[in-house]
Design brief:
The complex is a heterotrimer of chains A (about 650), B (about 180) and C (about 100). By secondary structure, chain A is mainly alpha-helical. Chain A is about 75% helix and about 5% strand. Chain A has helices spanning about 10-30, 40-60, 90-115, 120-140, 145-165, 170-200, 210-215, 220-225, 230-250, 255-260, 265-275, 280-285, 290, 295-320, 325-345, 345-375, 390-405, 410-425, 430-455, 460-465, 470-485, 490-495, 500-515, 525-550, 565-570, 575-625, 630-645; strands at about 70-80, 80-90. Chain A has a two-stranded antiparallel ribbon. In chain A, strand 1 and strand 2 (about 80-90) form a beta hairpin. Chain A is globular and about 115 Å long. Chain B is about 75% helix and about 0% strand. In chain B, helix 2 packs antiparallel against helix 3 (about 55-80). Chain B has about 180 residues and is mainly α. Chain B has helices spanning about 5-25, 30-50, 55-80, 90-95, 100-115, 125-135, 140-175. Among the domains of chain B are: about 1-80, Four Helix Bundle (Hemerythrin (Met), subunit A); about 135-175. Chain C has a single domain, classed as Helix Hairpins, CATH 1.10.287.3510. In chain C, about 70% of the residues lie in helices and about 0% in strands. In chain C, helix 1 (about 5-25) packs antiparallel against helix 2 (about 30-50) and helix 2 runs antiparallel to helix 3. Classes of the chains: A mainly alpha (about 650), B mainly alpha (about 180), C mainly alpha (about 100). The interface of A and C includes residues 625, 626, 627 and 633 of A.
């Protein structure tokens, strides 16, 4: 074990190498018509990802839950008492995150080989995908906030690159840009929050997670942040960092980019916008749990925003006709649940939901991708129907995902979502009721999706007639994820012998923070847990039956584009309107900056300088007469002056 | 006869000033060239009085003999008075007279402060003495001497090239 | 024979120099330009010779070696200057200095 920490740097480097290799392949094939070799490019990409997964497995199973591996690559900033290293840290939280990031990442790489086979930019896609994986690994593996920020920015960049992958359509570019800019607003929060934290920590300022946690756990520092400016700084730091999290994890107010991000290829949506990148917010919150639990105001804000987002997105999902958009809003909604869990201090529950959500959401997205691939690019659900006979495997996988997300018994979502609801009830019954209503609406829109896509008569005969099941490269990941969607929930239950329960795995990392919050409270017994489970299942079944009744037999007409109309449109674009209002002052300032500052001040001063130079130049030029004798005379006058100066002594 | 040197000096200086003025006011370049010869010769006489016999002879040989001859030759070849209609003096020229006036003023002022005592032990510049000084290795004069020779060679080659090219090109232009 | 005061030589040299300078600057004919330069060089030579006797002992020979160089270089300069005059004359067919004010042609 002592030697293993020297291999931590390999974890991000392997996908990075894959990215470089694929990038070279892409550049080398710019002149050819068919593009790069699919086999080579896909192999390199998947191998890089697979090797990272294998290494993660080795590392994860070689440390105990309370151990951590640390590798310092070099000292990055060394300014007096403030020091930041380029360092990696692998503890049980990292292990958990990396296992599903690299695991699902590898599966999606494999899936992409089949999905993107006909795309000219195949190697470029894998290059970006590998780069994304590398950035995500750095994000999770970083041992301090700055390293996480590198990964944070990296995944933002790759998100931009991949959303706008089919860049010939400018709408994709607009979506990519929107994602990048909204994320950027969050990044500002991240940085400012980090600065506020450093200001709070004063002389022992450090960005290392262990140092931050130790600083907060030290009871002697309580007076520093309990009252006065310290408390203000703490709250500011927490809220600002949370703003960064809302940007990355698409919560109110920075969520408008995620539905638009569906413009990218489906594997991208599955990997980035369902399983991995959007969970970075929860990861950061958990990493800095010791800080957040000491600011009750922030926790309330987090929980409030979480539940508001969960409900809002769930309702928005009802208005969508595009299959990927439904899943996008579903992701936003589920992320809201995770933030609710974080807001009430149940970080391990939040992370568990992250874990299970990754599996079933990826399964749903890849299944949707398989459907889209089968009917040749059609994404509007109103044009689908009756596909369960044509695409049995896809239907099976998506059904498993549906089962999981609804929280029906023993699926993955059953364990994680009901755990969150249970903890919510302990915190506040209102929160529980809201969460439960969210579960009903979740069941509504998910069942609507399944019904419209797979059941009933086919509403577009032409597309259905040519539908074919996914090839092997797409089918295998689908199967694995489908099984995962049903099976991974058991990691919490601890029913699989030899496998540590999820909770005990994360306990060494999260326990101090959670215990701080739950001083005095006791956990509800298992009997109560069964009751919550039963209520949750009932809610889901109500929603499912409702959806079947409404949309099972309905006549759907596919008019116009798949975008929602009327009230649905207003609800969906609510935060886009808010953004437009908020952006207005920025636009005003930029107009002023352009017209006044740029034109008048800078342009004016440049014009003045220009005029001065021209004037002096003209004056000097006037001395240069074309007449020979004048030139001669003038130069001799100069000579005369010099001679006089020296002969008659310096004046 | 004790003021013979002064008399000779006055004579030669008068001639040289008159000749220089004639150069200034001459109409035809040939007149100017002749005045120039007068100047050179009178200066040669001055050098002789001033204990520099070698230089005096050199002046006549090279300056009056070779350089003026070259000048006269070129004047003759090109037809020096091509622009007879141009006035000798115009407003610009008169305005530019301020420069020589200024330099004269500065020089006069400088002379009044310069130490001008004549040393009794000063050397008379005969051929052998001057030759010894010119080829003096320790003071480096020999290097200068040889360098001047090179400069003359360069000037010779340059002049040949300059004039030659013009002759050839004019032939080609008219072809 | 009494010696000539050094100051008179210098005044003469200064006068000749200024006359030569006036010739160079004032006359429009290019030949006079070159002749004025020759006058100036001669005046400078005279000044050197005039100063040579004010130096002590053997050092006074320096005043007589420098004019040798000046004469040689004046010869070189006259040579090249006249060659250029010939060259330039070919294009303009004029010895008027003002005709050469526009360099381009």
């Amino acid at each position: 074990m002592n030697q293993l920490q020297h291999y931590l740097w390999l974890l991000p480097t392997l996908p990075l190498l894959g990215a470089i290799l694929n990038g070279t392949l892409s550049l080398a094939s710019t002149d050819s018509h068919e593009g790069p070799s699919r086999g080579l490019s896909g192999f390199v990409g998947t191998l890089a990802s697979g090797l990272a997964f294998a290494l993660t497995l080795v590392l994860a199973f070689s440390i105990r839950n309370d151990q951590s591996l640390q590798q310092v690559c070099w000292t990055w900033i060394d300014a007096g008492s403030f020091k930041v290293d380029f360092a990696f840290r692998f503890d049980s939280l990292t292990a958990m995150m990396l296992l599903f990031i690299t695991g699902i990442g590898t599966l999606i790489h494999l899936y992409s080989i089949g999905y993107m086979a006909e795309d000219r930019g195949f190697a470029r896609f894998f290059s970006y995908l590998n780069l994304f994986l590398a950035s995500m690994i750095v994000l999770v593996l970083g041992s301090n906030m700055l390293m996480t920020f590198i990964g944070w920015e990296g995944v933002g960049l790759c998100s931009y690159l991949l959303i706008g992958f089919w860049h010939h359509d400018t709408a994709n570019g607009d979506a990519a840009r929107k994602a990048f800019l909204v994320n950027r607003a969050g990044d500002l929060g991240f940085l400012l929050g980090a600065f506020a934290l450093l200001a709070l920590m004063g002389s022992s300022a450090s960005l290392e997670y262990t140092a931050i946690a130790a600083w907060f756990r030290d009871a002697s520092h309580l007076s520093l942040y309990a009252t006065g400016t310290g408390a203000g700084l703490l709250t500011a730091a927490c809220l600002l960092i949370f703003l960064g999290c809302t940007g990355k994890s698409a919560q109110i107010p920075l969520l408008t980019w995620l539905p638009d991000a569906m413009a990218g290829p489906t594997p991208v949506s599955a990997l980035i916008h369902a399983a991995t990148m959007v969970t970075s917010g929860i990861y950061l919150l958990s990493r800095m749990a010791d800080m957040f639990v000491r600011s009750p105001l922030t926790l309330s804000v987090i929980a409030g925003i979480g539940i508001a987002t969960a409900l809002w997105a769930a309702i928005a999902g009802l208005f969508q006709n595009d299959i990927k958009k439904v899943l996008a809003y579903s992701t936003v909604s589920q992320l809201g649940y995770m933030f609710v869990a974080a807001g009430i201090g149940a970080f391990n529950a939040a992370l568990f939901h992250v874990f299970t959500h990754a599996f079933f959401k990826a399964a749903l997205f890849l299944g949707a991708g398989s459907v889209i691939h089968a009917i040749h690019g059609e994404q509007d659900m109103r044009k689908m129907g009756g596909l369960w006979k044509k695409l049995p495997l896809t239907f099976g996988v998506m059904a498993a995902g549906w089962y999981a997300i609804l929280g029906l018994p023993f699926g993955a979502g059953f364990w994680s979502k009901d755990l969150i609801l249970e903890k919510a009830f302990e915190h506040s019954p209102l929160l529980y009721v809201l969460g439960l209503s969210g579960a009903v609406i979740t069941a509504l829109y998910m069942t609507r999706l399944m019904v419209l896509t797979f059941f009933g008569k086919s509403r577009d005969e032409h597309a259905a007639a040519h539908a074919h099941e996914a090839p092997a490269s797409m089918a295998i990941p689908l199967l694995v994820l489908g099984v995962g969607a049903l099976g991974v929930g058991f990691f919490w239950a601890g029913m699989i012998p030899g496998l540590d329960s999820f909770k005990t795995m994360l306990e060494p990392v999260l326990a101090p923070a959670q215990e701080y919050l739950s001083q005095g409270h006791e956990e509800a017994g298992h009997g109560a847990a069964m009751l919550f489970a039963a209520i949750g299942t009932l809610a889901a079944l109500i929603g499912a039956t409702g959806a079947w009744k409404i949309w099972g037999k309905a006549k759907i007409e596919a008019v116009g584009s798949s975008a929602p109309t009327g009230f649905g449109a207003h609800w969906t674009y609510l935060f886009d309107y808010v953004h437009a209002v908020v952006i207005w002052p920025t636009k005003a300032v930029s107009w002023v900056s352009d017209k006044v500052v740029q034109t008048l001040v800078f342009g004016g001063s440049i014009a003045v300088i220009q005029f001065l130079f021209e004037f002096v130049g003209d004056c000097v030029r006037a001395l240069q007469r074309p007449r020979l004798r004048v030139n001669l005379g003038l130069s001799l006058i100069g000579l005369l002056v010099v001679i006089a100066y020296f002969l008659l002594g310096a004046f | 006869m004790e003021h013979l040197a002064l008399i000779y000096f006055g004579l030669f200086s008068l001639i040289s000033v008159v000749c220089a003025s004639m150069v200034l006011f001459a109409r035809h370049p040939i007149n100017g060239a002749m005045a120039l010869i007068g100047l050179m010769t009178s200066l040669s006489g001055l050098y002789a009085i001033l204990h520099a016999p070698f230089l005096a002879v050199l002046q006549v040989l090279v300056y009056a003999g070779a350089i003026i001859m070259l000048l006269v030759f070129v004047i003759m070849v090109l037809g020096g008075a091509k622009d007879d209609h141009t006035p000798r003096f115009d407003a610009l020229g008169l305005g530019l007279l301020i420069v020589p006036a200024g330099i004269l003023a500065v020089l006069v002022h400088a002379f009044r402060t310069a130490p001008l005592a004549i040393d009794e032990k000063a050397v008379r510049g005969t051929v052998d003495v001057t030759g010894q000084a010119l080829f003096n290795v320790s003071t480096g004069n020999v290097v200068l001497f040889e360098a001047v020779g090179l400069a003359l060679l360069a000037a010779l080659v340059g002049a040949v090239l300059l004039a030659k090219r013009s002759l050839d090109s004019s032939k080609e232009n008219k072809a | 024979m009494s010696t000539i005061p050094a100051l008179y030589i210098q005044f003469l040299a200064a006068t000749l120099f200024c006359l030569g300078l006036a010739t160079t600057l004032t006359r429009r004919n290019l030949f006079f330009l070159l002749m004025g330069i020759e006058v100036m060089l001669n005046a400078a030579n005279l000044s050197f010779v005039g100063f040579s006797r004010t130096f002590a002992g053997a050092a006074s020979i320096e005043g007589l070696t420098i004019p040798v160089f000046v004469i040689a270089l004046a010869a070189a300069e006259a040579c090249v200057g006249l060659a250029m005059l010939i060259l330039v004359f070919r294009s303009r067919e004029s010895v008027d200095a003002d005709a050469y004010s526009r360099m381009k042609e």
